[in-house]
Design goal:
With 732 residues, the protein is α+β, with helices and mostly antiparallel strands. Among the domains are: 2-289, no CATH class; 545-712, no CATH class. 30% of the residues lie in helices and 26% in strands. It is built from 21 helices and 33 strands. Strands 1-7-6-5-4 form a five-stranded antiparallel β-sheet, with no helix packed on it. A five-stranded antiparallel β-sheet has the order 2-3-33-32-31, with no helix packed on it. A five-stranded mixed β-sheet has the order 8-9-10-11-15, with no helix packed on it. β17 (499-505) and β18 (514-519) form a beta hairpin. α6 packs antiparallel against α14 (256-271) and α8 packs across α12. It is globular and about 80 Å long. It comes from Torulaspora globosa.
Amino acid sequence: MLWNAIRIWILSLVIVYAVGAGVSTHLTYLARAIPDEFRGYEPWLKAGAFFPDTLYSCKPSDKLAQFAERAHWPRFLISALELWQDRYGSVSRKRNCEDSLKFQAFLIGVFSHQIVDSSWHSLVDGYSSHGLLRVMAETEFDGDVEEAHNYLDVMGDFIVMSNVFNGIADSSWRYYTDTNWSLPNEQDVMELLRRNGVDQNDISYKELNVCLMRGLSASVSELYVVLNRRVEILNVAYGISPVAREFLEDCWQGGEFDIVAMLHACLPVYQSLFKPHIDMELQEQRLQLCGNLPEVSRTLSEYNGNLDFQYDNGVLTVSSRVPRSNFGTSIAVGRFGEDKKLYAAISAPLEDSKGSVYLIALENGAKAKAVMKPFTSMRGLAVHTYRFNDKDFLVVSEPGSNRIHFYLARKRILTIHDRTVDAFQLQLSCVADINGDFVPDLILSGASYGRNETGCAILVSGSSLISYLNSDQPAEVEISALTAVRLNGGPFKKPYQHFGAALTSSYSPSPTGFLYVTCQNFGMVLVYPLSGLHSDSLPMYVVIEKEITLFKTYNYDDVKILPSIVHGMFGKALLSWNYVGNSFIAISQHLFNNVFIYREINDKVEFFLKLELQHDSSSYSSTIGFGSAIQYDDQHKLLYVSSPGSFDGKGAIWRVSMQEIINAVKIWKQDILYMNAVSHLYFVNPQTDPKGASNFGKTMQITPDSRIIIGVPQLNYGNLQSKQLTGAVIIK
């Protein structure tokens, strides 16, 4: 098997085999979640974060393996809490003694391990077809769950650590190598084992410590492989699955940011159990539900002082002071306030594990004016501008609950929701007048929609929103009550095809305009004619890189799920614009560092030109991400493309004029335009120490006065202390 060959290759690099794959990942997530009051108890926290895996193979026996499995489930934590209540909680003078706090820290570590494993390995009750492991297996490993599991547990560690630090000069590496792991008081640990079916004859406290140190050895071994064989390891990892890093971070069920939000939502629930006289049966139910408990969205409130503003040579950097917020994930520009002045709406989808949206004034000196919080989404938001009747509505997607909120002058006006049983991760993708009635329409999408993530695209007629937007009273309405066209990817109905991963429409819709929908894991974009569009419409064209095929001649029976190493995420980002009366479409393939440009002419779509980045050798090709975001400056006729991984992860923005694009085709007769640093490099991340992979340029927006707003949502990713994952935006 392929995996066995890779494992042998890794063993040739590491003298000491890294027992217990996944250790460094568990330590990283633990660092994201340590409560401030337990910062001084890292030795016991780390021991707990590895403890559930300690006895799987250290001292082989069926009894110990069964105990290890039991330690991965909430009932084990409840038995540990009952023990803590007996020994410390019920005795007021012992409740806050050192042994009590060490035991609590240890159990917090175990709790974090359980949250990570249940999410990573698709064990969340009711979501087994949606988790990270399942989706990786179906899309990258031809349905082989074991292969995907092995990849995640070993290569996942190396990918996560490579994002945290670049070398030994980074202070974060010490967190993984400190040799101070410690079990709690011997009597407490052995009694915990006894209550879960293991006694002194099965394993001693000393032997348990030896097994625990295997986890530390694994962490240190993995760390030094990354430090000394970084290039070789990552070439293997990305050679198997180029999209792995994005899956690990962004998968809505089990990706890093989902887990971080879940940990911060659930940890306070777990910590609240360390009180005397708790009803354990009730608390076990709370523990199992805490990640899914919704909260009511609130309206816009006054700015809370959580942002820092810094000017330098005409460049403004706005960064968050709030750890684990991912400020800068999505950006919208509009006149959202009562004063009718221009604002940037910046989302921070992880803030307080629920999400916030900040409004930053763009006129007369940038400053924050208001903050909207919280939302129930555990993983990210999209923000858009909806312009109608001389008003700019701020539209905030809440994919965790399949809700779309409209705000005007700080007040929520309308909420649209989808309560379909298989609705998952529905959000607004773009706003466009697709039927030519001069009322903007909504194009919603959910690539993970459906029980097996087939995906969907929903076009909501703007005319059906008018009465709600003009009302003085806030309203909530089901999508089913609105005039809408629902596309489900037909005739393609394959599990995990991810239809609707990205969408756009012709820039100037007309009876001959088109709707473009990415079907991500087929590596294609489907093109639908807007005229007469209905829920049973079939595409007119299938676009795969340079090839544009009439759907009626396309043999769609042979279509199958392709891994990212084949399709390169063709269709990652879509953008339409108008130049000299012609409608152009850009489709990115960011894992291969390409952007394909097409032109609509005579009611047809034709390939025009491919932009290909000539990348620097210091970066891994599939992590450069040229095409992660695309924007067009209509005033100066310039196309901007981001590459968050350029220059060894620093990140850059590139630009090319439409005149050069036209000349390349019309005069030089080229079908590829190579983007290079001499002619096309516009802006490199100015931050000298972004601490880890900051994702500079993951999102961009152009303001009406041609300023560019660049999202840096993972600023301080590599900071494992208090100011981690704060995020920022840069305005140039």
